[in-house]
């Protein structure tokens, strides 16, 4: 055995994460439960030893790992040999032939986190990482401020890991997201206010209670989980980068971490580098990042959200400036779409690809369509669209827009009559909707 | 008096106190008052030009001062000011 393979064999279960570092001023901190630079208030990022990763990780070691995000464990900020693995990640990357044809694209892929495990959104990735780290740091109670998906995920994975859980949500969330949290029996605080107000309250709670808030004091670890959405796409494309990605923007964190994931795999030699364009999607009723982008600003003016895309309704997005920076430097775009376009986007994805996504996914598909129509996506580009949540959780949004079942008697004649009627209706709708 | 809620990363400068009472008719004056009772804290919150850093959020009675009058936002006796670092989404 050569020294290199020996090292690979003995260190494959170790981690390359070394410290936390301020993204603004570069100050370093021990990897504890902290998220803000004490000197300049900038966000803290996890720092890795990329030389170590280059020496110890290969495509083969990754492929020999579990069929979950933990196949990328050396790139994640945990120490444990037994991270919390509930089958999160490795969701399908589907080539979307029918949607591509409808839009006039040649190579379109959907990364489908609407079927992520265990709670059907990309948040399971970040929470699996955050709660593994929370356990390592000795927390017995975990918490979060959430627009819904994070609440579902934190409550579910905390239940699996046997951690106490207290989550905070705005009181006007969709019923599916409230029920989909309560079933795991956490303490659920429904706050009269929008997400930004919930967030502020949670920061105040975090100041005085010794809890692990996944998106506050555990944020540096939590947010790293989103990098796996970058890694998986590379691996599923046959160890290649796409040309263009389109992803939703709420706080901007996911967008920046997909970028970081791509960069890291290039950095350690797992994939050949090439330019990838990053385009972001927002709902018009909460589009502080899109507004700043279109006005050429490098700062965010917060807004009061008013949109059906509640999981994207963050009026004061923490990573907005970084998202703008990435869109600019990769020659991408950030667009916003109306609530009506979001519903059309949800229906379009369902009708062409058989994927029922939530409002955030509708926002992303509607933005994809808008970018294509504006000539901002080249039909020849290999484009990956990130679908981050499941439509069963936001049924209210499309209620009234998807028609009704044809109610019939248990008689052949009744069926034939209804079928004839439905075909007439189909033809009429076809003529109205499609060119 | 105005009650100021201090985030954990700054509590080293406030003797581990999560709440500090301060004076000031607006946010700028409050910052000076905070600095005199907790020396060094202003440099953490403001850049070299004395402007609030972009990752710092100030709230007066739960409202973001960017929806009010920024550093000129007026303060009254009994108001509550909360200092919050930017937070990732959920």
TrEMBL record, chain A:
Its EC number is 4.2.3.1. InterPro entries: Ser/Thr_Dehydratase, Thr_synthase-like, TrpB-like_PALP, TrpB-like_PALP_sf. Pfam families: PALP. Keywords: Lyase, Pyridoxal phosphate. The keyword Acyltransferase does not apply. Coiled coil: none annotated. One of its GO terms (molecular function) is threonine synthase activity. GO terms for biological process: isoleucine biosynthetic process; L-serine catabolic process; L-threonine catabolic process; threonine biosynthetic process. Belongs to the threonine synthase family. This is Threonine synthase.
From TrEMBL, chain B:
This is Molybdopterin synthase sulfur carrier subunit. The lineage of its organism: Bacteria, Bacillati, Cyanobacteriota, Cyanophyceae, Leptolyngbyales. Pfam families: ThiS.
